[in-house]
Amino acid sequence: MKVIELVKQFEKFAPKKIAVDGDPIGLQIGSLNQDVHKIMTTLDVRPEVVDEAINNHVDFIFSHHPLMFRPAKNLDLSNPQNSMYAKIIEHHITVYSAHTNLDNAVGGMNDWLADSLQLKDTKGLVYQTKMNNHEYFMGRIGILSNTMTVYEFAEFCKKQFNISGLRLISNTPDKLVNKVAILGGDGGKFFNIAKNKGADVYVTGDVYYHVGHDMLASDFSVVDPGHHIESICKPYLAVMFRKWAKQLNWNVEVIESDINTDPFTFI
């Protein structure tokens, strides 16, 4: 199969038009007309992930986070990032990234995260756009299956996301939680939307210090389990691609990256 066959199928599920303006999604390196034999799904494209792809004879990397958030100013190969680009090209690997379009897609990233927390009756959180008479939202808000305190919920998040630590921002850790909002990635700036929609607690990553103060001043509880919880995309994307391969007779193998790209270690 060709790269473009998978891309066309994926963009029916998560169209580029539902991405945030300016998000550098889509083809990152390579050619849409390249033949694909082995796909690897990953959250991030880092040098160790590229080495993993090469060792596994992967010719197509599908990532959530774009390979090129910032354009290269030169191609000095002493720079690890530039060296990684060169290695990708040298080994004829095509890289494609789906970022906020996967976040906003129905049945995409934020639905996967909401499912991990066993939320029921979920609805969209932050309105993004309307296309073909359908409204798209980033984040989800829903009802927690079992009522628990804010502190117990934070412990529940640690278990469900398989992490050793997180940051809890709360004046009222003993308050009962019934309604939960979640937005994968850096979603601190949207906390007032979560609060105004009736969430008892908001789950998002990369909360800034001063924003944390604002959350406390608003008497709103927030759980920051980190950005890396979005690695949940790896198995979900792999399952989706295998399903399409079977339906569309693609002769392609799909694997998930085994590399943990979280830059933080809790000690």
From TrEMBL:
InterPro entries, per the entry: DUF34/NIF3, DUF34/NIF3_sf
**In its keyword annotation, does this UniProt entry include Ion transport?**
no
**Superkingdom assignment:** Bacteria
Question: What keywords tag this UniProt record?
Answer: Metal-binding
Repeat as UniProt keyword: no
**Family indicated by similarity:** Belongs to the GTP cyclohydrolase I type 2/NIF3 family.
Q: How is the quaternary structure described?
A: Homohexamer.
Protein name per UniProt? GTP cyclohydrolase 1 type 2 homolog
